[in-house]
Amino acid sequence: DAEGDAADGAFRVALSRLRHLLGGDSTIRVEKGHVFLNEQSCWIDAWSLARLLDEIEAQPQANQAQQLLRLFRGNFLDKEHERSWMLIKREALQGRVTSAVVALGNAIELEGNPGVAIKLYQKILDQDVTAELVYQQLIRTHLALGQRAEALTAYRRCREMLSIVLGIKPCNETENLRLQIGG
């Protein structure tokens, strides 16, 4: 709220204190009136997750699954008071994670490890209960293994979570999977 020199002085004091808290002058840079964290000096989980997602999108490899599980701990800033910029970032990141999980699950299954893929799908669904594409992959994998009861359980959880959290029904593709389950 200060003006002129007082505002500049207050900014410099706050910047100095923040740099001290973060461990040095190199942690924060100021360019053209904007303040940035220095990527070479700071580790940010969202940045690391974004880089991993770039790698997975370029070429998914089964060994990236554990790293993804370490970095993805739920929706972006989920515990914070929601602001529009956060929702946009959250939805974009959520979509990328879902696509990455599907790609990694396919890679894991191609290596002959459907049980590992199932665990990956389940762990991600524990973090994001509305990831319908992941439910679809989980159902498909159970069906491929002849595990109809598990496939039906996954379908029912999907239907319930989509209804409770989003107030919607599963899409046609998920319903078609339900028909394949039978019973």
Q: Can you give a write-up of this model?
A:
- This protein has 183 residues and is mainly alpha-helical.
- Helices cover 67% and strands 4% of the residues.
- It has a two-stranded antiparallel ribbon with strand order 1-2.
- It starts with a helix and ends with a helix.
Features:
mainly alpha, 183 residues, elongated, 67% helix, single chain, two-stranded antiparallel sheet, 4% strand, 8 helices
Written as H for each helix and E for each strand, in order along the chain, the element string is: HEEHHHHHHH
Strand order across the largest sheet: 1-2
Shape: elongated
Sheet with most strands: 2 strands, antiparallel
Query: What separation lies between the terminal Cα atoms?
Result: 67 Å
Number of helices: 8
Mind sketching the topology for me?
Elements: H1 4-22, E1 28-31, E2 34-37, H2 45-58, H3 65-71, H4 84-110, H5 114-127, H6 132-144, H7 148-166, H8 172-181
Antiparallel strand pairs: 1-2
